[in-house]
Amino acid sequence: MKKYLYIAGLFIAACGSKQMEQKKLTVLSYPNTHKGDVVDDYFGTKVADPYQWLENDTATEVIQWVKEQNKVTTNYLEQIPYREQIKKRLTEIWNFPKYSSPFKEGEWYYFFKNIGLENQSILYRQKGLNGEPEVFLDPNKLSSDGTVSLASFTFSKDHKYCAVGIAQSGSDWNEVFVMDVATKQKTTDLIKWVKFSGATWYKNGFYYSRYDEPKKGKEFSNQNEYMKIYYHTIGQDQANDVLVYEDKAHPLRYFNAGITEDERFMYINISEGTSGNEILIKDLSKNDKQFRVLFKGFENNYSIVDNVGENILATTDKEAAKYRLIEVNPAQPAEANWKTIIPASDDLLEGVSYWGGKLFASYLKDASTRLYKLNADGTGKTEIQLPGIGTASGIYGKKEDTETFYTFTSFTNPGEIYKYDLTTGKSELFRKTEVNFNAADFETKQVFYTSKDGTKVPMFIMHKKGLVLDGTKPTLLYGYGGFNVSLTPSFSVSRIMFLENGGVYAIASLRGGGEYGEDWHKAGMLEKKQNVFDDFISAAEFLISEKYTSSSKLAIHGGSNGGLLVGACMTQRPELFKVAIPAVGVLDMLKYHKFTIGWGWAVEYGSSEKKEQFDYLIKYSPLHNVKEGVNYPATMIMTADHDDRVVPAHSFKFAAELQSKQQKDGNPTLIRIDSKAGHGAGKPTTKLIEDAADMWSFILWNLNAEVR
Q1: pLDDT (tens digit, 9 = 90+) per residue, 32-77?
Q2: pTM to 2 decimals?
């Protein structure tokens, strides 16, 4: 659940049909979910876990339960009169060309393109920017239904090979194969059981991280332990790969290898979770046999940018909550010897790249990107002008490069690609994405509202120009609030459709995120997690008090950690919201660390295995705070059978608990369980459209929104 972590479901839809008279839909009887007699003892506190049996996702009775739940959900959704119309309109508007920034490897420029409705974007290449594109790798040919996706790809330094990581059905498990760049054919190399790792090339092979092969039938649920780093030589069988690094004393740690661009230094990034790390290093030019500690863990965050000769450039939040760039000699790594190249400032230093002899720094100012070019010593700071308030990414390159490409997007800008010339310092538009809507019809504002404890929290609000604030507008409030993730401006076609139909879309930059650096992050961690929920609840109250909407017209949505957010807020303030969509959420806060890589989130949440942390986890854990006879918001829980990040048992148990305690004749409580899908990454276009159509049909219907 790091920054690459997928934030599920920023999709909003409306349809072109006439408003139909609202009627009560028939909800089939919920499955009779039997209760077991499991009771856990947490430091003398007895906690019942009657639905523990739902954790066994491959058991026959659980598979049958899933079928019965999906039958109820499908029956309900099929009664919504404009559901197919929404899906049709989504399909129409989704159908536009989408491009990535080009990047150069050897004599080729590579880029991704999707002509519109292809399930997976295709990797093309061409010689020169005006050359004829040819397909290099088409992920759509790896499966018949588009459920095999490209997870990673890296080229060898000599550009002879490309290591390609693929994921099946959205799983975090990857397989890595190797392509001959000249012929575009696969070699015999195949690497299995890779997770959270790409290929790091060095000489005639690459380093990668993996786990031991899991127990049959438990691939998507059992706890992952003892990650190891191996080196694979091209042409060899995986069984012959060399074990490079392991730590038998610490089974619950991540290990990833890195190589500086000139191949002088190898380093290992070690983390015990999603916050804080340690970095080991050795000088390959001196044939060092042992790694030495460069940055000691795990109180702070460090990220190596590259080396300048014998020194390492790295960003850190050590003594700099909004990060700084430092230069360190690995032979003298003590903090007293660090040299600050870019000091911390009032804005968040989000990332730094070093190429063409220059530094490029990306900052966040109130959740919007600012880009700067600097000399290698940190002097000569010059801003790279962006088109407006939005998100820019990708301004990186190799040391010999004199050009690069970066993307810019915003809430109303579907995407522009710019070419940056290092010699002139100028950016020019390279490619612009066209979508059939009039951006001038909409406005985005950023407001700052007051949370429960007096903290000022920013929130983006989007709507049509000329909106009348009369408290009647259907409104969607989205949030995440965790793991140092920043919610910056982004574009969504289906969101625009919602706005066109008079909707208001709001995104709150909650504490726990990374928008304002590590202090902002820590203010929503561990025992302070309630701050995140208070921020979200206060955002809803602001939208109501300012007459954007009312409780009967307000929906909330979030995925993963955002699913926890929705689950906690709907159980704490059920009367405040009309609709709730917790997607792939962490909902059982007492047991999350027992599945797959959930243990890595304990640095963020805490663990029920510690008394003081159990005491606050039990207070907000959504599963354990559902009360009898409460009319909770109309709820559709969304999950998937191959989610091995946040296992579907969280959603299964939460759905069963809500259904068992929901007020009679209250709002519907449904669970939508997708098949051959995971936490969200790599989901094919067909499934994205189906997800969006179902989610927004449910929301719009239960908000009694006018649909045109």
Answers
A1: 999 999 999 999 999 999 999 999 989 999 999 999 999 999 999 9
A2: 0.93
The encoded tokens of residue 533 equal 């929920």
Q: What whole-number distance in Å separates Cα of residue 590 and Cα of residue 187?
A: 46
Identify the active-site residue in 557, 624, 650, 679.
679
Q: Considering just the CA atoms, what is the radius of gyration of the chain in Å? A: 25
Residue 316, number of CB atoms within 10 A of its CB = 22
- Point out the catalytic residue in the list 171, 560, 621, 651: 560
Verify whether residue 560 is a known catalytic residue: yes
Q: State both tokens at 257.
A: 């290898």
- Cis omega before residue 298 (within 30°)? yes
Half-sphere exposure of 538 (CA within 13 A, CB side): 23
Q: Output the CA torsion 293→295→299→301 (10° steps).
A: -140
Mean pLDDT of 453-475: 96
Burial of 271 (0-12, 13-18, 19+ CB in 10 A): buried
**To which residue do tokens 């100012």 refer?**
365
Query: pLDDT, tens digit, for every residue of 342-399?
Result: 999 999 999 999 999 999 999 999 999 999 999 999 999 999 999 999 999 999 999 9
Q: Hey, what are 428's tokens?
A: 């020019």
Q: Which residue's entry shows tokens 């997708």?
A: 674
Residue 178, Ramachandran bin (φ over 0: left; ψ between -120 and 50: alpha; else beta): beta
Residue of 552, 560, 530 lying closest to 646 (CA atoms): 560
* Percentages of the chain per state (helix, strand, coil), in multiples of 5: 20, 30, 45
Q: Would you call 159 a catalytic residue per the annotation?
A: no
Q: How does pLDDT run across 206-218, given as a tens digit for each residue?
A: 999 999 999 888 8
Distance, CA of 96 to CA of 113 (rounded, Å): 11
Where residue 454 falls (left for φ over 0; alpha for ψ -120 to 50; beta otherwise) is left
Contact predicate 384/391, CB 8 Å: no
Q: What's phi and psi for 186, nearest 5 deg?
A: -70, 145
